[in-house]
């Protein structure tokens, strides 16, 4: 009888501890703008259990596009959004009472590549002139960075090219594959897959050409940070662990970790893409979005005629949390 009572006590005690653990875990809903190997540190944080170590349960949804992602965040369909920093400026310029704050940077360069229909062993940017160029959606970071880089090389995208910007983001690869285009601006892994299949050739990296910019950042409403600062701190700490892990491990090791998020992509392609992004410094090494990067973003937006307001870094960027985490 004593043995049964003793066993029941431990079963009850175990259930009590389990219940406490569940209560201690906080749920954060995250909306990512697309599913991309470009966001490798996020998937590493999920797969390596770094969020769990910080007492967080992450519910990840893919919202497919900047506008949809920001609408999801503003309508409380998500607590945190992973999207380009330009969206926070657009929201602020519309007079939002509860501004969207950038609190942790994930990628620090553009993630697109220039893919040509034909091989160009000695590619020169002048080769683009008078070509049929399939670009990205107007007003988004890929398009703005693309035009910024072209202008830097003396190419006026609206005068020197036969430019198409009317294709939806998800349909751009198929449009290039089936259409009469000479060049296209593509994300990975599509660019590498096209190259592997002989349907295109990577000739340049917009990320290398544009310099550091807060391309993809975790952001949330200012009110959410005020009410849930500890959860945001824990989120940022988990991300920083993942960023450090990515910096200290090989592309092959990283690819194996994130493979579950890309079931339709061969491990070899994932490895190639991770190596390409890592070697050009696309993955931010820490969560801090500094003022120089913010100013570079505004310069790119202004050059594209898309900067609605010259918003100061301090108004839409919270670096205090990331700085505290790094100083622990």
UniProtKB/TrEMBL annotation:
Pfam family, one: NMT1_2
Keyword Ribonucleoprotein: no
Signal peptide start and end residues: 1-21
Keyword Signal in annotation: yes
Annotated family: Belongs to the bacterial solute-binding protein SsuA/TauA family.
Gene Ontology cellular component list: periplasmic space
Name assigned to this protein: NitT/TauT family transport system substrate-binding protein
Subcellular location: Periplasm
Keyword terms, alphabetized: Signal
């Amino acid at each position: 009888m004593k043995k049964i009572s003793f066993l029941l006590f431990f079963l009850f005690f175990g259930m009590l501890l389990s219940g406490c653990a569940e209560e201690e875990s906080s749920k954060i809903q995250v909306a990512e703008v697309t599913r991309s190997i470009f966001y490798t540190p996020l998937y590493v944080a999920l797969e390596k259990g770094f969020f769990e170590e910080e007492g967080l349960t992450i519910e990840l949804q893919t919202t497919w596009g900047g506008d949809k992602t920001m609408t999801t965040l503003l309508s409380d369909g998500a607590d945190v959004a992973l999207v380009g920093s330009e969206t926070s400026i657009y929201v602020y310029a519309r007079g939002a009472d509860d501004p969207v704050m950038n609190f942790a940077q994930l990628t620090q360069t553009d993630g697109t590549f220039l893919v040509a229909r034909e091989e160009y062993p000695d590619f020169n940017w002048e080769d683009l002139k008078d070509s049929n160029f399939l670009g990205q959606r107007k007003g988004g970071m890929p398009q703005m960075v693309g035009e910024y880089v072209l202008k830097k090389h003396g190419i006026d995208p609206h005068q020197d090219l036969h430019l198409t910007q009317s294709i939806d983001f998800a349909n751009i690869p198929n449009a290039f594959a089936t259409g009469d285009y000479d060049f296209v601006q593509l994300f990975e892994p599509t660019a590498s897959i096209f190259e592997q299949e002989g349907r295109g050739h990577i000739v340049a990296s917009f990320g290398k050409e544009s310099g550091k910019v807060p391309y993809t950042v975790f952001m949330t409403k200012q009110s959410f940070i005020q009410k849930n600062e500890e959860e945001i701190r824990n989120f940022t700490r988990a991300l920083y662990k993942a960023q450090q892990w990515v910096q200290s491990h090989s592309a092959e090791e990283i690819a194996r970790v994130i493979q579950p998020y890309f079931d339709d992509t061969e491990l070899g392609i994932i490895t190639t893409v991770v190596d390409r992004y890592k070697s050009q410094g696309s993955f931010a090494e820490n969560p801090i979005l500094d003022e120089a990067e913010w100013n570079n973003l505004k310069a790119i937006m202004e050059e594209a005629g898309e900067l609605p307001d010259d918003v100061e870094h301090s108004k839409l960027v919270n670096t205090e949390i990331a700085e505290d985490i790094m100083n622990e």
